[in-house]
User: Fold this.
Amino acid sequence: MELISLEDFIKLDIRVAKVLSAERVEGSEKLIKLRVSLGNEERTLMAGIAKHYSPEDLVGKKIVVLANLRPRKIFGVESQGMLLAASDGETLSVLIPEKDIKEGSKIS
Assistant:
């Protein structure tokens, strides 16, 4: 993988978000549609995590999102960011802050 500079990293707007609602996407085995709060705004995210998480497991959780990803239509829904998760090929784990922290808090 290519190394990036500190200047490249600084361009990433990684924030804490709270999941307000979550639902499976009809016609997809992988996608969950999330409505999240970044503190001062709400956004819709599409995440390919349905094989590892149920929507009920996500509502109310604080997660980590890439907030300045260019919006993209997925299954006809505009996804306005990306949920961050780790995977070893078998297990997928959504990234969550260790301590309770305000929605919108910047990760650096």
